[in-house]
Amino acid sequence: AVIWNNYVETTRLMLHTADERFERIADRTGQQLHNLFVPVAMTVDLLAWQQLATATALEERLNSLSYLREALATAKHLSALFIGYNDGDFFLLRTLPVNSPLRPVFDVPEPARYLAQSVERDDAGAVTGTFLFYDAHLNLLRRDDRPDYVFDPRDRPWYRLARDRPDRIYTEPYLFFTTREVGATLARRAATGAAVVGADLTLQEISTVLAVSRFLPDAQLALFDDRYQVIAYPEPDRLLYQVKGQAPRLALLSELHEPALTTLERDLRDPEQRSTRLYPEGFTLDIAGRAWRGQVKTLITQDGKPLYLALFVPQSELLADAVRIRNQSVLIAATLVLLALPITWLLAGRIAGHLKSLVNETAQIRHFQFQEPIAVRSIITEVNQLARAMALMKSTIRRFLDISAALAAEQNFDHLLDRVLAETLALAQADAGLLLLVSDDERELQPAAARLRNEANPVTATQFAMLPLTDPAPHPLIQAMQATAPQVRPLTVSEPLADYLAPLTGALTERASQLIIVPLRNRQEEPVGVLALLKSQAVDAKGVSAELLAFIAALSGTSAVSIENQRLLHAQKNLFEAFIRLLADAIDAKSPYTGGHCARVPELTKLLARAACASQDEPFHDFSLNAAEWEELHIACWLHDCGKITTPEYVVDKATKLETIHDRIHEVRMRFEVLKRDAEIVCWRQIAAGGDAISLQADLQAQWRALDEEFAFIARCNQGGEFMSAEQIAQVRQVAERTWLRTLDDRLGLSHEELARKECLPAQPLPVVEPLLADKPEHRFARGPQDRIEPDNLWGFQLDVPEWLYDRGELHSLCVSRGTLTGEERYKINEHIVQTIIMLSRLPFPKPLRRVPEIAGGHHEKMDGTGYPKRLHREQMSIPARMMAIADIFEALTAIDRPYKSGKTLSEALQIMARMRDEQHIDAALFELFLRSGVYRQYAEGFLQPGQIDEVRVEDYLAANRKTALPVEQKRNVAQQ
After folding, report:
1. Which of 58, 66, 166, 645 is most exposed by smallest CB count within 10 Å?
2. How deeply is 71 buried, as exposed, middle or buried, from its count of CB atoms within 10 A (0-12, 13-18, 19+)?
3. CA distance 907 to 491
4. List of residues 6+ apart from 17 with CB closer than 8 A
5. Where in the chain is the domain with CATH 3.30.450.40?
């Protein structure tokens, strides 16, 4: 009876364990579905905002190939990314793996790794189909014209659904026509509304997960939908079902010809049976005399539609070990009965009692009840061993579940710390505990959690002081944190820690006599904190003490959680990278005059950084960058001009002195026209009054010539192409003294802000004599508190802030001596680096990336401390920051997309930079490395026009301390970068 009862209980435990394994398989499958869909959904969302959505021709769409390739590489399960346009055009990029079934169909070249498919429709309705094959580096291998490729995306369900909805749509899983893979399509309307973007996602990975999860040979696992179509199966080649003369389709459950799955489909189609099969608990099916244990789990997909996971295992295989144990137990029992019947009679009662206790313990384990310890003691060695093994199993399971639960709640860090401390106290039977962690800035040891085991008298971490790590005489807890092993010491009145732990000891009803201190270390064996436990009884060195210390030493987490955390970190990095590129693309797209600056500066900076790492010469022979520092440099490069997002476009693009939202030279021209008409009217009036017509006409022509010359002079000044001398400025002011008669109210039709600026002076009665050019109060824009940078600002900026936010006075603008920008506008242009530092300083960069604001924000500083915005000297700047300054200048000098200059040749740019080196604007050692390593030429070959790459003799630019100054025009070009 005992053996049978043990068999029954073991059977129940195994069935329960199987149900739990089913749960884990379902959770893993659901998580895999989530992991497949989420990155693809994010990719579709980002693609909806890309410039590809507004491209109108194939050549323009091909400019987005690199972005699409990176998106396909990031989401490994993406089959294709595509976009359908409202005019019927279509563009798609798909991967071509080595084993792709498309290769023989399209006669794909062997090196090809990507296929771009394009459909273009002209106004007459003619269709042009094109296939383009690329290798892994997007080099074009072949271009095929495909007259038969007339695909119209507007006829596809995904296009029609996504066009009329603001959010993403998901198709039901189906069989891809081209690749014969099972997958789904995600799509959404582009931000402009002119197209629908989409992605094809393969679900092959789910079949792989099910294959790995098949823990018994005859186990059946299948993922299916409401129509009983099988979406994933451990043997994916059985997913396709084809009847002769018909197109292939997804197989139904019954078409897999597996008895359990066939029976399940039959029961699900029966309304009376369906609810019992979809019940979350396990059930048993009897099919042809064979019992099957099974469950059907409902998985909710991203669009809220359910999928179903069926799991069936032959009960004979599942309980094989239980049957074997039962048979062995029967055989052993029979042998013992025959050999030792008298002893059996004497010991049967005690053994049965012990076994019954162990059976009860098994029931408690089955119900996840771990509170009571196993206290079975027997004179039979095997029973004792079984009891100890069950006790160890019970303790191990409890510890595992507690650690897993605590780590699973890591998003709420405070609860995690409190849970860890509470479980540790319970296991050690300690009375109180305190957990301290190193602060983020590594300056303090901060109390993070404190509690009593019974919580009768609550204690909080705020009752304990922070401990400075930089103190010359470190606190005992800091000393203990530096140790490599736990410490156990008596807690006496003379103990140095007694005063610090007073909030805990004072809350205890019994005096604490023992103190356990355990240092906490991360994966790099760096100290991250310390755990202090108080006990009111002596620690048993052979029992709980050693086990407790070993448990706490391993408390950092399980390997599975670490792997998942690394995966999460990797996904977050990819997302962060996408946002960085998105912001940089937005900045470059904001103004046609900055072009690809944000993309080119990172390439040049990295070239120089690699050269520094490879150099064996002073001062770079010790310079190197680890993986985290390369990532830090990469992010800083891409975000070095993120502050430009706040710079008004008209200031960035300003090409003339009077230009604001429009060029006010047109208003000035109209005033000259008014003066010319006024002169003509006066002439004709005098002729009508009897004056000499010939003389008056001659005077009129003379006045017109003078006005034309004056306007031409003002127009030349407006262009800002030449340096304005004092005589020219005086001439501008002389022309401004001319007057014209205004007869209309200049306060009509204004915005409320401009009207408020005009109302600082009372309106004059009409008509009003106006100067031809003037600096008026309404031209000045007050600088608000949000636009001011105080001398003692948080970021250490040292700026000469103009009084006005903008001064658009006509004379003020025209009298700018160099360039087209006023002092206020020049400040606004330079302010982008201020905003860059402020924006990046507010981002919560992790420790390896904390120098991103310093690197990104230092590229306008100069080695002599006269730079912008902090006036740092060379010694105050990191090497990467000095590298970026060189990269930023060289890119600006050679760029061909600036409104105020043409791109310099290599020799011209290096000549200017050599003079800047001599004037201590850039780092001399880095500039020499820039020249000797050939970085300048590497960059030129990739980004400059052929006409810019001229002959360069490096020796001509290596001489230091030359006393030549930069010409005015060159200084202006560099300053406007």
Report:
1. 166
2. buried
3. 76
4. none
5. 409-557
The gap between the terminal CA atoms of the chain, to the nearest Å, is 91
Beta bridge partners of 307: 299
Fold observed for domain 11-28+206-318:
Beta-Lactamase (3.30.450)
CA-closest candidate to residue 925, choices 965, 963, 874, 975? 874
Distance CA 321, CA 318 (A): 8
What CATH class is the domain 574-645+821-975? mainly alpha
Residue labelled with tokens 């069936």 = 312
Query: 173: cis peptide before it, omega within 30°?
Result: no
For residue 76, is pLDDT > 80?
no
Q: Are 384 and 378 in contact (CB under 8 A)?
A: yes
Detail the DSSP E strand segments found in 110-259: 114-121, 127-134, 140-145, 169-170, 174-175, 182-189, 195-202, 220-224, 230-232, 240-241, 249-250
Q: 683, exposed or middle or buried, with CB in 10 Å at 0-12, 13-18, 19+? A: buried
276-288 pLDDT, tens digit per residue, is: 666 666 778 888 8
- Reported CATH class of domain 409-557: alpha beta
Q: Are 129 and 146 in contact (CB under 8 A)?
A: yes
Q: Residue 724 contacts by C-beta under 8 Å, 6 or more apart in sequence?
A: 717, 815, 816, 817, 818
Query: Residue 565: is its pLDDT beyond 80?
Result: no
Q: Which amino acid is at 707?
A: L
Beta partners for residue 138, in sequence order = none
Is residue 429 a contact partner of residue 443, using CB atoms and an 8 Å limit? no
The boundaries of every CATH 3.30.450.20 domain in the chain are 11-28+206-318, 36-203
CB atoms within 10 A of CB 816: 18
232, 203 contact by CB (below 8 A): yes
Distance separating alpha carbons of residues 725 and 816, to the nearest angstrom: 10
Start-end of CATH 1.10.3210.10 domains in the chain: 574-645+821-975
Statement: residue 880 has pLDDT above 60: yes
Q: What is the mean pLDDT of residues 607-624?
A: 91
Q: For residue 855, give the H/E element and its range.
A: helix 852-856
Provide the pLDDT confidence category of residue 658 given band limits of 50, 70 and 90: confident
Helices marked H in 188-235:
204-213
Fold designation for 36-203: Beta-Lactamase (3.30.450)
Number of other residues whose CB lies within 10 A of the CB of residue 614: 12
Angle at alpha carbon of residue 788, lines to 841 and 883, rounded to 5°: 40
Question: Which tens digit of pLDDT belongs to each residue from 88-131?
Answer: 999 999 999 888 888 888 889 999 999 999 999 998 889 999 99
Burial of 946 (0-12, 13-18, 19+ CB in 10 A): exposed
